[in-house]
Amino acid sequence: MKPKKIRRIFGASKTAGFRMLKPYPYYKDSGVEWIGNVPEGWELRKLSQSFNSIGSGTTPKSNEEVYYENGTVPWVITGDLNDSILNETSKKITKEAINDYSTLKMYSPNSLVIAMYGATIGKIALLNLKACVNQACCVLGKSSLLKIKYVFYWFLANKKNIISLSYGGGQPNISQDLIKTLLITIPSKKEQEEIIQYLDKKTSEIDKTIQKDKKLIELLKEKRTALINHVVTKGLDLDAKMKDSGVEWIGEIPEGWKISKIKDKVTVKISNVDKKSKENEPDVLLCNYTDVYNNEFITSNLDFMKATANYDQIKRLSIKKDDVIITKDSEDAEDIAVPAIVSEELNNVVCGYHLALLRHDKSKITGNFLFRLLQSKKINDQFSVAANGVTRFGISTYPIKNSYIVVPSLKEQKNITKYLDNQTSKIDKTIHKIQKKITLMEEYKKSLIHHAVTGKIDVRGEGKSDQTPQKKVSSQTSLTI
């Protein structure tokens, strides 16, 4: 059958800065639905027919110290795979393990590692070191037909399709046998090299842009934190007379402000409501740890968990507008007393386990100001210092109640929170715009890789310097990417 000549636009991206790219002149049906048409001249082969070696590894007995203590042999686990070049492993094993386990084979640099199951299923890495792997990793070694970096990009482009072939219930799997049967599109070695050069160049440009944007987000977050730290302890009046607070880590405060303990302004209630549902208890909605940790504002838009609580718990721990809730337990001391404020009236929502409910005396302090105080590092550091634990940290009622806070007049509290709400909202909107841009760039990068390794665009000659003259392409057959 005569190959089909493609006369259509395959797709488009609004990302600026990239020229129009043409498709190949002729295509043929690959015979595989998720691959679709491929350029004339490209082959399709099973990975088992394309690689000299496809293997895996194992995990030495964890209770045998001889296999791990002072280990020097890099040992790859699926957690090490991050869709990029792997220069170092998080774990090492000993030479004794290599000697005792025949399944622990050493793989050379430029081998491709694929995660076959677990949370990282489908993740890959290109080895830049000599290493062995565990049983959840599949390793593709040498090939006379394929350049390994091309295969790396091919797996990135087809991750979703490959994962869709997985089996199993709670933990889907892609076996080594399944990987061997995968059909890969194979252009000539010269074309593979040109695709690699093009994608290396373009993805590097995209990654640099993304890294700059991520750095900008970090700077904006630092600015936001510094703003809150300063305003809630120094106020808005730059010319205000200052006095020693009497608390070393708080330092000077405006002359009219006071130092107080939380217990003098706030009622502290530690939650004992777990996630279990009991037949003899009323149904409630549960505001859980993650609801507080991941959100500054507790609203009805959150997907609260359904549970039950007894009548005493409902009476004591039902949350109200302007309540402040803090994290009480965490795996990291730095995550103790992360605050969130209840910003609207909620119906039948109870404060859950691992949290503390702080209800303020409205005649002495506002909920919004208390919330901003607890966001300040100068105030919040008291809680992480007071937290007890080794692998998991927790704080009890006493140190929460006896932590120090700064208290201006109610009028100043309202002015400060109004100012912070306005300024942090501006910063948050800027961060959101940058994050949206990053998402679009990451989607564009995935699309670019997919179009290149499946032959939807012809990048031959495109990996060279931008100064290289390019043949003019008819807009009818071009592809904007």
Quick summary:
Helix content is 33%, strand content 21%.
Account of the 3D structure:
The protein has 481 residues and is an alpha+beta fold. Among the domains are: 43-186, Adenine-n6-DNA-methyltransferase TaqI, Chain A, domain 2 (Alpha-Beta Complex), CATH 3.90.220.20; 267-394, DNA methylase specificity domains (Adenine-n6-DNA-methyltransferase TaqI, Chain A, domain 2). The chain contains 12 helices and 30 strands. The protein has a 5-stranded mixed β-sheet with strand order 6-13-10-11-8. Strands 18-26-22-24-20 form a 5-stranded mixed β-sheet. The radius of gyration is 29 Å and the shape is elongated. It starts with a strand and ends with a strand. Residues 1-18 and 466-481 have low confidence and may be disordered.
